[in-house]
Specification:
about 120 residues; alpha+beta; Single alpha-helices involved in coiled-coils or other helix-helix interfaces; three-stranded antiparallel sheet; 3 helices; 3 strands; about 15% strand; binds zinc ion
């Protein structure tokens, strides 16, 4: 019995490593798709949207989360690319709870991001 447990353990470790490797690849693909989307947006917005949608699909499949930067570029409403000045409008509302309002010009989806004062911003690596 002993060897079997050892075998299962080893198999589990290998499977885990494969999964980790797949996620790493998925992360890199998402990164590249966002870069492509931003670059393509100057010429073809629809293609740029498709890149972002593809990135979203990869993220869901491999359970890889978008980074903060990627989340800002992604519209939850239409799944397209959010580009300030092009497909998105950004306004800062300083009253009461200061927040940033990002409006998708394609589908009208509104996103509010609170700005917290006195708090050091965490630097994501
Ligand atoms: Zn949208």
């Amino acid at each position: 019995m002993r060897w079997r447990i050892g075998f299962i353990n080893r198999l589990a470790t290998i499977l885990f490593r494969v999964k980790e490797y797949e996620r790493k690849i998925a992360k890199e693909r998402i990164e590249r798709l966002f870069q492509l989307a931003v670059r393509m947006s100057k010429e073809d917005l629809k293609l740029a949207d498709r890149y972002v949608q593809l990135a979203r699909r990869i993220s869901l499949k491999h359970r890889v989360r978008f980074t903060k930067e990627q989340k800002l570029l992604f519209c939850k409403g239409c799944g397209g690319l959010l580009l300030p000045g092009r497909t998105a409008r950004i306004r800062i509302r300083p009253r009461r709870e200061p927040h940033v309002v990002i409006t998708c010009l394609k589908c009208g989806y509104i996103r509010r991001i609170p700005i917290k004062r006195r708090e050091k911003r965490q630097v994501s690596t």
